[in-house]
Amino acid sequence: MTAIGATAVLDRLGLEALVAALRAGGRTVVGPTVRDGAIALAELDSAEQLPYGWGVEPAAGRYRLPRREDGAAFAHSAGPQSWKNFLHPQREKLWSADRSPEGEVTVQVERPVPPSYAFLGVRPCDLRAIAIQDRVLAGGYFQNTGYTERRSGTFLIAVECTEPGATCFCVSMGTGPGADSGFDLALTEVVDEEGHRFFVRVGSEEGATLLDALPYRSADAATASAARAAVTEAVDKMGRAMPPVDLHALMGASLTAERWDDVGARCLTCGNCTMVCPTCFCTTTEEVTDLTGDHAERWQRWDSCFDLDFSFLHGGPVRSSGRSRYRQWLTHKLGTWHDQFDSSGCVGCGRCIVWCPVGIDITEEVAALNEEAER
Q1: Where in the chain are the domains?
Q2: What CA–CA distance (Å, rounded) separates 173 from 168?
Q3: Which residues of the chain have pLDDT under 70?
Q4: Geometric angle at alpha carbon 90, from 87 and 92, rounded to 5°
Q5: Which DSSP string corresponds to 131-160?
Q6: For labelling alongside 260, which of 94, 198, 238, 353 has CA 20 to 30 A away?
Q7: Within a 13 Å sphere around the CA of 247, how many CA atoms are in the beta-carbon half?
Q8: Kind of pairing, strands 195-202 and 62-64?
């Protein structure tokens, strides 16, 4: 039997067999595919649905899909979705209640059996994001039951990053481009004169069992070397970087900075950055009833610190201005997150930069805050 830490090589047929084996084992396989002009995450029936031959050209407030000549399947950076959409969905029914004609009220707790997920194509930054959400939603005293049940047993197939986008900055956050842990299998795509193949590393016993059922070949030195070189070269291809300073301390010292006025004047407070962020976890609950008043439901849904009602207390919201709400988001993400969860809340994926309608760049804002602090 293959051991944890072992290496192997799969070709495209082997990748197809990987998806088929997961589906045959009852897994719901989710991976990247092309949809609506973007690399979107969706359930896969076959590995042929992967975005072979597509790359991305992200920029602040801009996203395009160009064709590639090499036919690579994973030569793209993060798309608009993260794995949060599946583990911590946007809306979730918590319970429903019904009142009988006699006035008796019965309550039904919603506990559907979650799919047995297999995530194919998890980037190292998103591996860290999943680990952060594990800490937030499943690691404390008050656990999110729905998240815990969906996360339990999820099979993670990481894909190391060899083509970072212009908005990626995982190196400066210590989250990529290589995958070190937290995966069942890790793939590194190699396309060269020797062919199209995937260097595989085993990260768990379940990963080893799956690999043994696939048509793989032993890892050769050339493929291993090419895979390591591609990941190493990706370090120098990062399009962005955070300033090399103590971000926790910087955020705490910048609460009265003038830069907040500048970014507050540009921010639309739309909440896009929190929606696409793979670690933002805030939710609210809402109750809905039918017209008779005899049926009611409670739903949990995503919430955002950019919503005016997010900080509403008796008398009005605590943070009524766009300036105060952007400051709350950034100082929590990079600063007080450390106080709550012993880590940063940012993994350097760059999604918030790409999907901001006005192109606000988190790395640019932090650099400006640091320059102001130094002055």
Answers
A1: 7-235, 247-374
A2: 10
A3: 1
A4: 80
A5: HHHIIIIISSSS--HHHHHHHTT-EEEEE-
A6: 238
A7: 25
A8: unpaired
Where do the H-state alpha helices sit in 189-293?
205-212, 221-235, 247-253, 259-266, 272-276
By percentage, how much of the chain surpasses pLDDT 90? 92
| Residue 75 structure tokens | 């030569």
Instruction: Tokens for 94, please give them.
Output: 């918590």
Q: How many CA atoms lie within 13 A of 32 on its CB side?
A: 26
Helix (H, G, I), strand (E, B) or coil at 216: coil
Relative orientation angle of helices 362-374 and 322-331, to the nearest 10 degrees: 90
For residue 165, the SS3 value is coil
* Dist. CA 330–CA 334, nearest whole Å: 6
Task: Check residue 32 and give left, alpha or beta (phi > 0: left; psi -120 to 50: alpha).
Answer: beta
Give the model's pLDDT for residue 1: 67
pLDDT of residue 141: 83
The values of phi and psi at residue 340, to 5°, are -85, -45
Q: 188-213 pLDDT, tens per residue?
A: 999 999 999 999 999 999 999 999 99
Using omega within 30 degrees of 0 as the cis cutoff, is the peptide bond preceding 177 cis?
Answer: yes
Q: What is the pLDDT of residue 139?
A: 87
Q: Residue 107 forms beta bridges with which residues? A: 97
What's the confidence (pLDDT) of residue 370? 97
pTM of the predicted structure, to 2 decimals:
0.94
Interatomic CA distance for residues 29 and 31, integer angstroms: 7
Task: State the greatest distance between any 2 C-alpha atoms of the chain, in Å, as a whole number.
Answer: 77
CA atoms within 13 A on the CB side of 143: 12
